[in-house]
Design a protein that fits this description.
This protein is an alpha/beta fold. The protein is built from 7 helices and 15 strands.
Length: 229
């Protein structure tokens, strides 16, 4: 049986925690590791702990759910839990995978979790056999994950460097990061995601990949060093 996915609940309403805890406990694929009642507390947790899935309310005091997503450098896969539907479109800019309206009913919760689990292909198949879909020039293209070397941010677009060509995809860096298997790709800079196994050399402020020098941000250096050690 696969390892349960670590979850965090971020919501200022105790009743919302009660419902989500009940639903999470009914799913052996999930494990609740943290509960937060405001965004500041959640940001501190996420800076020091890795979670697989965040249940995030939008309307909270001090800092809203969307402001939290804007603040995070690495956004975990997120399911919004809120009574307000008007923020749905804006939320998807941050790679949010689903949007649950309160009161949350269990069948809808299960559907959302199935969507989340389907995004994690690493446990289902080898990375060499999987692919991702991105939009290029208005068309959906299927790109084999094994051929992706690295990706560079260009505003609301990302240039994806493959082993044999490049694509300018209509996707944000955060959205692409959520699509790629986390065991094989790592964020090394706010503008760069790289294939870990394709890294040829690591310097203090850069890595060498496919003979290209890619910058490494200070906030990402420790995690990268850990992966390569």
């Amino acid at each position: 049986m696969s390892t349960p996915k670590k979850c965090i609940i971020v919501d200022d309403e105790p009743a919302a925690h009660y419902v989500l805890i009940n639903y999470i406990n009914q799913n052996p694929q999930l494990e609740l590791t943290h509960q937060c009642y405001n965004g500041i507390e959640a940001l501190n947790i996420l800076r020091n702990h890795t979670v697989d899935l965040m249940f995030l309310d939008i309307d909270m005091p001090e800092i809203t759910g969307l402001e939290m997503l804007q603040t995070l450098k690495q956004i975990p896969r997120t399911i919004l839990t809120t009574a307000y539907s008007e923020f749905a479109l804006e939320s998807y800019e941050y790679g949010v995978i689903d949007y649950l309206l309160k009161p949350i009913y269990y069948p809808r919760f299960v559907k959302s979790i199935e969507r989340f689990l389907a995004l994690d292909p690493v446990e289902k198949t080898d990375a060499a056999e999987i692919s991702i879909e991105v939009k290029v020039d208005g068309l959906l293209l299927e790109l084999p994950v094994s051929e992706i070397l690295y990706a560079q941010s260009y505003g609301n677009y990302v240039k994806i460097f493959m082993s044999n060509r490049e694509y300018l995809a209509s996707i944000t860096t955060n959205q692409l990061e959520n699509l790629l298997p986390k065991d094989h790709f790592v964020r090394v800079h706010k503008s760069y995601i790289v294939a870990v196994q394709k890294i040829e050399q690591m310097e203090r402020d850069n890595i060498i990949l496919n003979k290209e020098k890619i910058p490494v941000g200070i906030t990402y250096r420790r995690n990268l060093s850990r992966l390569l050690s």
